[in-house]
Amino acid sequence: MKSRPITPIDIKRPSTSIKKIRKPEKPVDALRSTTKQNEQYAATIAELETQRNTYMDALDDLNQRIIKDGDLIAGLRDRFQELLQGKKEKSSRSNQDNLEEEIKLSKEAEKAIIAFDSQHPSAYLAENPHILMDITSGTSNYFSEVAMNIESSITLGEYLVTSMEQLNSISRCLKAYESLRQCVRLNNFLETATETTKKVLQSEGTTILSSDLVSKDFHTVISTNTYYFSLDKDKSFPGRCINLKQSLIVRDPINDKLYSPSIDQILNPTNKTLLVSPIWDIGVLYIPQTSPFKKSFSRAEVLITEFYCQLLAPLLAAHIHYSHSIQLANHRRALQIFKTNLVPKNSLKALIPFLYQTIQECIYANDVEMYIINDDNFSKVTNEGKVDTNQYKLNGLPHYISEIKSPHVIDRVNERTPNYVQEVDEWALGNCFLGMPIISNGKVIAVLELSGKNGTNKFTQWDVDFVSVIVNCLALILPRCLQVFDKERDENIIREAAMFSEIVSEYTYSNMLSTNDICEKISYDVFKLIPCEYLLIATKYDNTIKTVITLKNGEKSDVLFINPEFLSMSLKANYSILSRDFTEVKDFRPMREIEYKEIVAVSRIYNDYCYAIVCLNTMDKLRNFTVVDKHMLEVLAQLCITSKVNNSKIHEKETIEMENLSFQNSLEVFKTVLYKEKQLQSLLLVFSEMINAHSFCLIEKNKSKNNFSILLSSPNVKICPPIPLDDVLSAMILSQPSHHIFIENINETGLDKSKFVELFKQFSSLVISPISTDQTYFIIFVTDNKFASNFNVLFDLYTPMITILLNIFLKTNHTDMIRKANQLKIDELSFYDHDLTSKSFSIEKYNDQQIIELLLRVFESLEINNVLCSKTPKIVKFLEEVSKLYKNNKYHNWNHAVETVQLCYSIVKRGKMSPRAINPMQTTALILACLLHDICHDGTSNEYHIKAKSSLYHVFGDDCPLENSSLTRSVRLLKSQPFFVCINNEEFWLFFKECLLATDIKKYEETIQNYQQCARNFDSKNLIHSVSLAKLVITVANISNVVRPFSQAQQVAENLETETDETNEKLRTLGIKEQTFVYWKCESDELPNIEMKFIQEVATPLIKAITGSFPELNDLNTSLEETKRNWQQIISNLE
């Protein structure tokens, strides 16, 4: 090796130039200038001397290195010769120490062994890769230079050809390993490893595929974009090489049966010869041959690649686990922030922007959509948190997801994707897709969809798990937000109805007579009520059709947007349609250059006159045409008829005035009832008086149940169960669903046997009128005289108004609850205090109404009504609502809740705890916690949800998920009650939360310890002391069966055992180990032994703790001992 001669340093001299003539300096200034120049010269000389010394030192180092390299070369030649001959010479002690130290520093390096043929001439080197470090005696920094000086005449066989290329490759592998060890805990390890690998293997197309512990997919990073691939062993080259655990060389990938377009088009777009090598089973090295001078890969290149993969494997494994931990922590942190910020979001306007922002920030989704699922359609929620009134049919991906009730992931949406519907799913076309149902109370209420992911090609299992937790949280929040939205929508409907009433009231008899054609004014009023792109009013007289006025965006226009055939059809008779599917509109044909989204059209006919009003495409993006709009147009079309009739002088003036007066009267009635609490009922009562009817009832046809149910009635109508469709009068209604049915004498028609007759008091005549075009809702009017002669005229006037209020009524009232609450009338409570405090209390003795009475007595006795500021009817409605939230489980059901309340009441009353130990507010919280502690309980256990990783587990974690779920639903229920303002304080919520969560029986020891610490110096003014007592009381009340008569105790224990068996069956179905019957250890699985263990370990300490402070309750110990003796007797009989 020749050293480069050192050349003297070129010192730049100042260039000569023409000097300027300047004034001589003063002696003092000249002296200072000279001194400064001398200092600069001295500094320059010192700098030059330093440089000279540096170069001399470098020259000495170079000479020493040449000598040392010469010795190394000689040593290497001898060692390589020994390796070729298969001899194994013992290393020097120093080299051996260095080797052991290197292995100790990196245990992963022990796995870096290449699986070569056992007959390979360099097997020893293959089995001990670190010998290369040993050979250089720790001088790994110089190994590359040493390799370059090995003579080419020395060969090492197939594995290690003695060329500087091979030696350099091995050296680069080891250096890369040392370098990458420092990067394992960096987020960009994969990118760094890829770039390093390209240099090591000298291939610019190299890609590292790394596995993921959660999704099991493999991913790589290309130009800052992350690509995920599912590696099937029979459908891809990387999958096959991992399955075979060996490298593959593919010379024509695109024509190979393992060619995968989704992988190879991205990683090897030019179809180069391919080398694929496994990195254990956690990664793949994917190397296209990018050299223009090579068509394939040599055996030596394959072996070097496999050697490098073994070095890289432990580092990649360590990074995968590190990356998994970091991502898991980030997701948990993000979800915690989401849950915290989600609680106050009580409207769609607040929820949706927050939800979309969270998903886009945490998952990097490009687009997010939510669809609200209804019974027969679904609607999209806008980014502003408003429900788009444009309703879709039940099809497309949202409908499919709502049907399967599980997550749905698509790598790339295209027109051939199953269940794809262009109208619904076009927004996701060409992107990856993730859809998730939002399920509340077993019903899909919405679907959340994500499309496109920034920086990657698909949604992973990480994304699915993250969104699963989010939708489980939304299942608790979204129903409340939808209720708020419905309320706001109903208020908008009322406002629109009020504006409609104001507008129509301007059309009086006088101004309609003085105006030759009032249609123009009506058209502008229609646009004011229903802003639309196109509006048309047309008329027909003597078979001649004429367009009266056309508006485009509120201005006059002559554009033709409706084909004549449709207009002619609609003007033949009274007609109305509201549709967003124009294929269903009879005789409709689209015109050119018009975009058709939705249409509402009505027509009204009188003698030879007919008027039609047609509106096309609403201008409000957040509002579509509604049924209310259609009914408003019916009234306005009738105005056109009235105006024409008035001006034609067909009728006498008195008759015209009478008709207009009736119309004005109907508007005044409508305006009057619009702001009453019971709008529809008020209007129907007024209308009944006008037509001389003494009673009415509004009925609804239930298609699924094949009956008619009563929605609303006058006060004098009896309450009865639904009437079947095969009833004689039901059959008559269904035979003429779109016409009035008049029956003058019910007794002469044979219809007096109908169930409908039982609804009313004595009557002779009735009329049944349809009030909806879908033949679902009907009104029955009855009278004991005759109906008014102008019934048809009045009904035509009032039907649109009745229909408007019917829509409001259906949206704002839960009719089933109202109907049941009306049936329940409690005038006098029949329970006495001794009924409620008895330990022998058995809920099986009482019916539903008596149970409500029992609970009312508890509320009254403890003055809970006063705390809630509520009277009996409101409390009754609340209790009815609570009972419906309990499921029909064997043990965790409504009966269990009532029994818990009863024993809690007995303990509080007989122990004289209120107000001595707990005040009325605290007592209210305690009783409500007993009442609500198991609402919506699914009949399983906390252990089940934890093992099954259910939605409750993802939302609430492993700390009593069932109790936390009940707490969440209870808070939501209490907030919806009118008495909420009376209990909304810190003291109530603290007691309520602590008491309800204490019903988790696993916490019984903690409950006892906390109370015993406070009992020594109990202070009722100390909130902590009062809470500890209340928790003990509810825990004892929750196991009330142990102090009941033994027949009850045994039955309850068997019910709990049955429920546990059903839970275990669910676990077995999921392939999960069964849960234990109880939370404490019991050597036997027989019910009597389990109950005995429960009494000894749990019930006895709890009851002793409470009776120790309240001697009045000592009879609980007696009852417990009796139950214990009975179980012991059963055990003895079994033995």
UniProtKB/TrEMBL annotation:
<dbReference type="GO" id="GO:0004115">
    <property type="term" value="F:3',5'-cyclic-AMP phosphodiesterase activity"/>
</dbReference>
<keyword id="KW-0175">Coiled coil</keyword>
<dbReference type="Pfam" id="PF00233">
    <property type="entry name" value="PDEase_I"/>
</dbReference>
<dbReference type="GO" id="GO:0046872">
    <property type="term" value="F:metal ion binding"/>
</dbReference>
<dbReference type="GO" id="GO:0047555">
    <property type="term" value="F:3',5'-cyclic-GMP phosphodiesterase activity"/>
</dbReference>
<feature type="binding site">
    <location>
        <position position="933"/>
    </location>
    <ligand>
        <name>Zn(2+) 1</name>
    </ligand>
</feature>
<feature type="binding site">
    <location>
        <position position="934"/>
    </location>
    <ligand>
        <name>Zn(2+) 1</name>
    </ligand>
</feature>
<keyword id="KW-0140">cGMP</keyword>
<dbReference type="InterPro" id="IPR023174">
    <property type="entry name" value="PDEase_CS"/>
</dbReference>
<dbReference type="InterPro" id="IPR003018">
    <property type="entry name" value="GAF"/>
</dbReference>
<keyword id="KW-0378">Hydrolase</keyword>
<dbReference type="InterPro" id="IPR029016">
    <property type="entry name" value="GAF-like_dom_sf"/>
</dbReference>
<protein>
    <recommendedName>
        <fullName>Phosphodiesterase</fullName>
        <ecNumber>3.1.4.-</ecNumber>
    </recommendedName>
</protein>
<feature type="active site" description="Proton donor">
    <location>
        <position position="892"/>
    </location>
</feature>
<dbReference type="GO" id="GO:0007165">
    <property type="term" value="P:signal transduction"/>
</dbReference>
<feature type="coiled-coil region">
    <location>
        <begin position="31"/>
        <end position="65"/>
    </location>
</feature>
<dbReference type="InterPro" id="IPR036971">
    <property type="entry name" value="PDEase_catalytic_dom_sf"/>
</dbReference>
<dbReference type="InterPro" id="IPR023088">
    <property type="entry name" value="PDEase"/>
</dbReference>
<feature type="binding site">
    <location>
        <position position="934"/>
    </location>
    <ligand>
        <name>Zn(2+) 2</name>
    </ligand>
</feature>
<feature type="coiled-coil region">
    <location>
        <begin position="1046"/>
        <end position="1073"/>
    </location>
</feature>
<dbReference type="GO" id="GO:0141162">
    <property type="term" value="P:negative regulation of cAMP/PKA signal transduction"/>
</dbReference>
<dbReference type="Pfam" id="PF01590">
    <property type="entry name" value="GAF"/>
</dbReference>
<feature type="binding site">
    <location>
        <position position="896"/>
    </location>
    <ligand>
        <name>Zn(2+) 1</name>
    </ligand>
</feature>
<keyword id="KW-0479">Metal-binding</keyword>
<feature type="domain" description="PDEase">
    <location>
        <begin position="810"/>
        <end position="1134"/>
    </location>
</feature>
<dbReference type="InterPro" id="IPR003607">
    <property type="entry name" value="HD/PDEase_dom"/>
</dbReference>
<dbReference type="InterPro" id="IPR002073">
    <property type="entry name" value="PDEase_catalytic_dom"/>
</dbReference>
<comment type="similarity">
    <text>Belongs to the cyclic nucleotide phosphodiesterase family.</text>
</comment>
